[in-house]
Design brief:
Helix content is about 15%, strand content about 50%. It is an alpha+beta fold. It has a single domain, classed as Lipocalin, CATH 2.40.128. It has an eight-stranded antiparallel β-barrel with strand order 2-3-4-5-6-7-8-9.
Length: about 190
């Protein structure tokens, strides 16, 4: 009986230690945001997209995984004013030839591998799903106690977004929109 109590106590201590080192941090969706920049031959546009939900997984204080859902219906243009093209561009970005938000209201990012590069910087490979198409992306993620940030480019043509792409329509000239757009992600917990 004494051995059984010792084993039971050791098991409880081991499970408590394992549980204490694994932690999921849900993002604060009202404070976390994605900013984007899309460039074209004649200029660029910028804006924001909001998160629907998301979590970073930690073990022993180190990032081990994560997954995020982005609310594509929230895509907003920040470099144009209301009545000066803002509504028109937002409508176009939500239309079928861009993100098709009526059919694809969300996008998803799921971490597949995480490797520490330094104390608070991680090399991440993840699956990004936009318009129902999933492709791998890689980026560096920098963390602090209550934040995580990253910046990377996404090739829109890999997700079936070909509108005014020079790589698809070679003769498009100065109406071309570059295939890659830049996203900067700021997460707060």
């Amino acid at each position: 009986m004494k051995n059984f109590k010792t084993i039971a106590i050791a098991l409880v201590v081991a499970l408590t230690t394992l549980t204490a080192t694994a932690q999921d941090k849900k993002i604060n969706t009202s404070k976390s945001v994605i900013t984007w920049v899309g460039k074209k031959v004649t200029g660029q546009h910028s804006g924001t997209i909001n998160f629907k939900d998301g979590v970073l997984n930690f073990k022993g204080g180190k990032v081990t995984g994560g997954n995020f859902t982005v609310d594509m219906t929230s895509v907003a243009v920040t470099d144009l004013k209301a009545g000066e093209g803002k509504e028109k561009l937002e409508g176009h970005l939500k239309a079928d030839d861009f993100f098709g938000t009526d059919k694809f209201a969300t996008s998803k990012l799921v971490f597949k591998s995480v490797k520490a590069k330094s104390a608070n910087v991680y090399a991440v490979t993840a699956d990004l799903t936009i318009k129902g198409i999933t492709k791998p992306v890689t980026f560096d993620l920098t963390t602090t106690k209550n934040t995580a940030t990253t910046k990377f480019n996404i090739d829109r043509t890999k997700y079936g977004i070909e509108y005014n792409s020079k790589s698809i329509f070679a003769s498009i000239g100065d109406k071309a929109i570059y295939d890659e757009f830049e996203v900067t992600v700021n997460l707060q917990f």
